[in-house]
Specification:
Layout lengths: L5 E6 L7 E4 L10 H16 L7 E11 L2 E6 L1 H15 L5 E4 L5 H6 L12 H20 L3 H11 E7 L4 H9 L7 H9 L8 H29 L21 H7 L8 H35 L7 H12 L4 H10 L3 H18 L20 H18 L8 H6 L2 E5 L9 H5 L3 H13 L6 H13 L10 H13 L9 E5 H7 L4 H13 L6 H7 L15 H19 L2
Parallel strand pairs: 2-4, 2-5, 3-6
Antiparallel strand pairs: 1-6, 3-4, 7-8
Helix pairs in contact: 1-4, 1-5, 2-4, 7-10, 8-10, 9-10, 9-12, 11-13, 11-14, 17-18
């Protein structure tokens, strides 16, 4: 939402005599027969069958006060259409609206009934006339009681009114890039807080405070709870690793209690239907359901929750795209922690096994997955490895799903041998660094290979000469190609998880340097997944005599640990 705004439900009658101005950065009036006809039909349907509802909501209008007029930032198409309807029904201007790009627009609109229908030389005026003709046709064909329709429009149709003091160009830009959600959540809030329901003031204040408290706590600690309960889209993450502030976090609890229909704005459709059909009683019931969902799910998603399996498996399933409505529905059907935990575990197991399933239903071994073709599946299994480790070890810490998402964690090779990592060392004549790199590479090359012999020969030469006296380019290209071709280095036994920034920072370093960098990142309070810490400290390795090299034996030991912790998820 824009800051410094006031929001309210204003009837069309309350817009009387206001002066609206549409600035030049907005497009002109472009509603077609379809949109104008839909608006008229919606109002007619409400008039004929209000089903107990006190008003019909015509969606948001965003304005900025400027002297004695309002600059329209969003909603000008709707306002212009309402102007034309009232002009037709009553032969007068209910309010004034002018377009900066068309200086004569206000005068033209006020005399629309007498204007030439062929206005193709002025595209805005042309669309004004076409809309007016659609309105004429609607009342002629429907044989509507014009006065009854007008009364409904003025007294029972409302707009969600937003007044902002923010820079209008910035607000408009954000609105039209989808960064200000004048969305169903805000309208639903207005329904819960509507005075028209007959609720007493204290009840509405209590709801308002509860709504604010939920929004605040769900955002706390860099969206800790929210990211356990809600999938996060990449586009919503800011560069500094924070979620956009204008996302309404409470929406995830609304989604938990409303069955998705596949339609846009299905939440609003649900609550507005309740409002129309059941009025105060229905809204009270929905509010109680919402409060229960908030209490239950925020408890499960809290890092202080004693039931760690529920927390970790719930976050894992949401990360994998599970539907919060289906999960919460299962809890409601049998509100018993042990059985709910069993359900979540079964779902986690199903998704883990799916990572190993071939198209024909056959199952692969976990070590058969390849970095080039199975990145998403490998990441899923390594996340689950972290969770299983934290659960089984009964560690005090819990998995930070929020940081995993917002810091964009991804796969990282534990041992990598890209020669670009030592390009700087070569340029600076740092022979010891190059020798250390070649020694580590040699340990991962097959004993009888020509490449290993060539590396050994180069190391012998470097004992007696400087880097600048050797042409290493061909050798390095062969080493890089060997890394690309060695399938064993692109399996789960040589992969772990790191955030994107750390990955780009240390991705091509040799193992000993990576280990040192990761230890330094931990000192800086950078988040390093628990199993990433363990593997670089070689805590999964049986032989720990050489902490600076990650050998094929270390990879084998690491794979055994992964299988041990994931066994219960992958067994039949």
């Amino acid at each position: 939402m824009p800051t410094g705004n006031t929001e309210n439900l204003r009837s069309i009658e309350q817009l009387a005599n206001l002066n609206f101005f549409v600035p030049s950065y907005q497009r002109g009036y472009r509603w077609t027969d379809q949109e104008v006809g839909d608006l008229l039909q919606d109002i007619k349907d409400f008039k004929d069958n209000p089903k107990g509802a006190k008003f019909y909501c015509l969606q948001p209008v965003v304005v900025q006060k400027e002297g004695d007029r309002f600059r329209v930032i969003d909603g000008q198409q709707r306002l212009t259409t309402i102007f034309l309807i009232i002009e037709f029904l009553e032969g007068r201007s209910h309010f004034k609206i002018a377009y900066q790009t068309r200086p004569q627009s206000a005068e033209f609109l006020e005399n629309i009934a007498h204007e030439n229908p062929d206005q193709k030389d002025n595209i805005d005026f042309y669309h004004f006339v076409k809309a007016y003709q659609t309105i004429q046709k609607f009342f002629k064909e429907k044989e509507q009681d014009k006065q009854a329709f007008l009364k409904t429009l003025l007294d029972e149709c409302v707009v969600l009114w937003y007044e902002t003091q923010d820079d209008e160009n910035e607000v408009f830009r954000r609105l039209n890039s989808g960064k200000i959600p004048l969305m169903e959540t805000e309208i639903i809030k207005a329904l819960f807080l509507s005075k028209d329901l007959g609720e007493d003031v204290n009840t509405l204040i209590e709801r308002s405070q509860a709504w604010y408290h939920c929004e605040k706590t769900t955002r706390a600690e860099q969206d800790f709870i929210y990211c356990v309960l809600s999938p996060v889209h990449e586009k919503d993450i800011l560069k500094d690793g924070f979620l956009r502030d204008d996302i309404q976090r409470i929406e995830i609890y609304l989604k938990a209690i409303v069955k998705p229909t596949g339609k846009d704005r299905y939440l609003l459709e649900h609550f507005y239907h309740i409002y129309q059909e059941k009025g105060q009683e229905g809204i009270e019931e929905e509010w109680d359901r919402l409060k229960d969902a908030i209490a239950t799910l925020s408890g499960f998603a809290s890092k202080n929750k004693p039931d760690r399996e529920i927390f970790h498996h719930l976050g894992f399933l949401i990360l994998e795209g599970a539907d919060i409505y289906a999960i919460y529905k299962t809890w409601l059907e049998d509100s018993y922690n042990d059985r709910f935990a069993a359900f979540l575990f079964a779902e986690a197991k199903r998704r883990a096994r799916a990572c190993l399933q071939k198209k024909k239903g056959e199952m692969r071994e976990i070590e058969d997955l390849q970095y080039s073709s199975d990145k998403r599946k490998l990441q899923t299994l390594l996340v689950l490895f972290n969770l299983a480790y934290l659960i089984d070890q009964q560690m005090a810490e819990c998995f930070r799903f929020n940081r995993f998402v917002l810091e964009r964690w991804s796969l990282e090779h534990i041992y990598a041998q890209n020669s670009q990592s030592i390009a700087k060392n070569i340029a600076q004549e740092q022979k010891d660094e190059v020798v250390a790199w070649l020694e580590e590479v040699k340990k991962h090359i097959e004993d009888d290979s020509e490449l290993k012999k060539e590396i050994q020969g180069t190391l012998e030469q470097l004992k007696n000469t400087s880097l600048k006296n050797l042409d290493l380019e061909v050798l390095f290209k062969r080493i890089d190609q060997n890394f690309e071709d060695d399938e064993n280095l692109h399996r789960i036994s040589n992969l772990t998880l790191l955030d994107r920034r750390a990955n780009s920072q240390i991705g091509n370093l040799i193992f000993s340097h990576k280990r040192a960098e990761i230890q330094e990142l931990q000192k800086q309070d950078r988040l390093i997944p628990i199993t990433t810490q363990r593997v670089f400290n070689k805590e999964f390795s049986k032989e720990k005599d050489n902490p600076n090299v990650f050998t094929r034996a270390d990879q084998k030991d690491y794979l055994e640990e992964i299988k041990k912790y994931l066994h219960k998820y992958l067994e039949v």
